[in-house]
Each structure stands twice: as structure tokens, then as C-alpha cells.
Write a structure and sequence with these properties.
The chain is an alpha/beta fold and 423 residues long. Helix content is 28%, strand content 23%. The chain contains 13 helices and 18 strands. Strands 1, 11, 12, 13, 14, 15, 16, 17 and 18 form a 9-stranded mixed beta sheet that branches. Strand 3, helix 4 and strand 4 form a beta-alpha-beta unit. Helix 9 runs parallel beside helix 10. The N and C termini lie far apart (57 Å).
Length: 423
């Protein structure tokens, strides 16, 4: 993998990107299987000074649930997490075993409970009322994990902070003993503890969250089999940004596990639940320049991709590196890059609270291709049909071959389930 002048690793050469645009059209998601597999190996092989690591690495498929990516994850020896009935069904299609596939949410809808009656999925409980509901509907699942809210959250944006009183997620840490007793009254046994404080957190806060598990472990006692460090590992979106210290992370969490093992006098499995860390860097969005214009002090590059393909800049003010295919090394000027939607928020080059942040780019021409980098996570997964835009195609580059892994939506598919009240 070569490095482009902007300092970000170059996933694909210009010729391949032009070929993809010609064959499949734009906007287009393009994924690199090798990058995903490399990240999976990194997490599976990480070892602390005691020689131990993460016993289970469980992919949070909400980051990108494409079936081909799920199959790559399974092939890399990872398990999978699901947060909906649809994700449970995807896991089955991709070949994951139900008993090793974990459902994690703060409520059961009726479709999920029906699936739990059919299959012995593992269950991570985020709200106390789920205990009695599970006990009444599933004869197969009698052991559960509890997701704890440690009283604080931390992430790259307040909207993805999943701890503290302002978050709906997890069982409040001070209620752990009561909820463990409630589970047993319902005929369930707590065998695991889990914590996840947010997306894109940092080493200090991810470690601090483990304290709540160490305390709750005393209330679980002899039935405890595993603890989960959750996910939230940050991704280096900006050129030159330091990578997350996986070695320090495994070291600290192995130390937390060791404390719990000493207190309980038994070995405990340690799990990790990454999402974006595995897939963000493996993908980009390929878009075509359809126009350029000046508006007051700003120059705009108008492309055919928008927040219907990647909502993170509009929703979080998230940064994604941009490049113009075939223009590396040319003189650059400040541009805003915007999409086709009838919304002022449809701008890729914005920061928090929608502040416009022009980006230095070579001056493109109509018909040029622009890449939005590091979009393998929460791009296609959060895509929409706003403005009656069609869901973009997805392709995977695997062993040198370009494979279509989701076809572009057709207009007939877009309106297929609609009914006219006048007919």
C-alpha cells in the first residue's frame, strides 16, 4: 500500500478507481478487504505482558453490515454483535453460530423476541425490564450479560457518548446488585459484564470504564465467565493523526481482568467489541464532480455524493479526508465540497455546529472523481433515500479482484412498497 502526498495511505491506484466509476457509476462505496483483515489480525494477536489478550473480538456490525464484509470478519476468526432483529438475520446468513452471536440493545421489540424463541442467541441486557421479557419468551437463552452504564460517557461527539445519566444505554452502575438479583429471580444467570461508553473515545476513558465492571463482578460472583471492554476505539481520520495504542489498551484491560480473577479465584474471558476500528479505513466513497461555483467568499465543488451517502459530517461535524483522483501534487486552493441534496447541511467540509471549513484541494474539473476517505464505517450503514436518491452500489476489492457486493438501488425498488390511495 503506497502513501499519497497528503500522508494518508492510498487504498487504490487511480486506474482502479476510474475503472470502478466506469463499471459501477457514482457515487460508489469501494472497500479493501486486506485493510479489514489487517485490523482484525492486529486485535486478535494483541498480547499484554502476561501473554494474554482478547479471547473474543466481536465485530459491531452496525458500523457496516454488508454481508460480504461479515463473511470476511468471520473468516478472520471474529464473532459478531447485533443490535436488531435484522442484524441477527444478517449474522445467520453470513454463517455465524447463534450461540456465539450476541444481541445487545436496551429493549426487545416483538420481532427480536420471536427470533429468540427460535434460536439460542447470546443476549446482552441493557435495561432491567428486558430480563422478565427474555425469561418469558426464550427457553434456549438462560445465561445473560449485563451492559453497565458506569456513570459517565465519552466519544468524539456528544451524540455518540453512551454513558452517564443523559444516555439511554445500559444499566446504571449503582443498580447492578439489584439487577443481578432480579435476573436470578427471573430464572436467568448473569455470566458476563459489558461496558461501552461511546464511539471514538480515548485510552484513559476506555480504561476508567472498566472500574464499574470490577465492582459489579463482586455481586455476580461465581457465575461470572466473561467481561467485555466494549468498543469505541478511535480511528485516525486526519492525515498525520496518531493511531490508537492497541498494545496499551490490551495491557490495561488484561490488568482489570487479572484483578477480577484474583478476587473471584477463577479465570475470566476478555472480549472486545470494535466496529469502526475494523472497517472505517477500508472504505472510501467515489463521487463525480458535476459543477463548480462561487458564492461570495467561498468556492464550491459540487459532487454527486451527499449526506444520503455519508451523514457523519452533517450530523457530527466529522472530518473526512478528501482527494481528487489523478491530481496529486498539483497546486491547491480552498474549496467547499458539497452534494446534490436540497439542504444547506449537505456539505462534506464542515465542522461542529455546521461551521464551514474550506479544504485545500487541486482545482478539479467537471467529470473528475473525488474520494471521501475512511468511510467504511457509518457510510452505507446510515445511508438514506432522502430526496428520492437511490442507495449507492458497494464494491469490494479482494485478492486483486473487484467484486460488486451490493447493486445500486433502482427507482422501481425505491417505490416498490408504496401504494397510491387514489388507485
Amino acid at each position: 500500500m503506497s502513501t499519497a502526498p497528503h500522508g494518508k495511505p492510498r487504498l487504490f491506484d487511480d486506474a482502479l478507481l476510474r475503472e470502478c466509476a466506469a463499471r459501477f457509476g457514482t457515487p460508489l462505496y469501494v472497500y479493501d478487504a486486506e485493510v479489514l483483515q489487517r485490523r482484525a489480525r492486529e486485535l486478535r494477536e494483541a498480547r499484554a505482558s502476561d501473554g494474554r489478550g482478547f479471547d473474543v473480538v466481536r465485530y459491531a456490525q452496525k458500523a457496516n453490515p454488508n454481508l460480504s464484509l461479515l463473511q470476511l470478519v468471520r473468516g478472520a476468526g471474529l464473532e459478531v454483535d447485533a443490535v436488531s432483529a435484522g442484524e441477527l438475520r444478517r449474522a445467520l446468513i453470513a454463517g455465524f453460530e447463534p450461540r456465539r452471536t450476541q444481541f445487545c440493545a436496551d429493549l426487545f421489540d416483538r420481532e427480536t423476541l420471536a427470533l429468540l424463541e427460535e434460536r439460542p442467541f447470546a443476549v446482552n441486557i441493557g435495561s432491567p425490564d428486558m430480563l422478565e421479557q427474555l425469561a418469558a419468551h426464550s427457553r434456549a437463552t438462560r445465561n445473560v450479560t449485563l451492559r453497565l452504564n458506569p456513570g459517565f460517557g465519552h466519544g468524539h461527539d456528544a451524540k455518540v457518548s453512551t454513558g452517564g445519566a443523559a444516555s439511554k444505554h445500559g444499566i446504571w452502575h449503582a443498580d447492578a446488585a439489584e439487577v443481578i438479583a432480579r435476573a436470578r429471580r427471573a430464572g436467568l444467570e448473569v455470566t458476563g459484564l459489558h461496558v461501552h461508553i461511546g464511539s471514538g473515545s480515548d485510552l484513559e476513558n476506555l480504561t476508567r470504564a472498566g472500574e464499574s465492571l470490577a465492582q459489579a463482578a463482586q455481586h455476580v460472583g461465581a457465575s461470572l465467565e466473561s467481561i467485555s471492554a466494549g468498543g469505541g476505539l478511535p480511528t485516525p481520520y486526519r492525515p498525520g493523526e496518531a493511531r490508537f495504542d492497541v498494545q496499551a489498551h490490551v495491557e490495561r484491560w488484561c490488568a482489570i481482568r487479572a484483578r477480577i480473577e484474583r478476587a473471584l479465584g477463577r479465570r475470566i474471558a476478555l472480549e472486545l467489541e470494535p466496529g469502526r476500528y475494523l472497517v472505517a479505513e477500508c472504505g472510501l466513497i467515489l463521487s463525480e464532480v458535476r459543477g463548480l461555483k462561487r458564492s461570495g467568499e467561498f468556492e464550491y465543488v459540487l459532487v454527486d455524493a451527499g449526506f444520503h451517502n455519508l451523514i457523519r459530517p452533517a450530523m457530527y461535524g466529522a472530518f473526512h479526508h478528501l482527494s481528487v483522483v489523478g491530481r496529486d501534487g498539483e497546486p491547491a486552493a480552498p474549496f467547499l465540497v458539497a452534494g446534490p441534496l436540497c439542504e444547506s447541511a449537505d456539505v462534506f467540509t464542515q465542522g461542529k455546529q455546521g461551521a464551514l471549513e474550506p479544504r485545500e484541494l487541486p482545482r478539479p474539473q467537471v467529470g473528475d472523481l473525488v474520494c471521501v476517505h475512511d468511510t467504511g464505517a457509518y457510510g452505507a450503514a446510515m445511508a438514506s433515500g432522502y430526496n428520492s436518491q437511490l442507495l449507492a452500489a458497494e464494491v469490494l476489492v479482494h485478492n486483486g479482484q473487484v467484486r460488486l457486493v451490493r447493486a445500486r438501488q433502482s427507482f422501481d425498488q425505491l417505490v416498490h412498497n408504496e401504494r397510491s390511495c387514489l388507485s
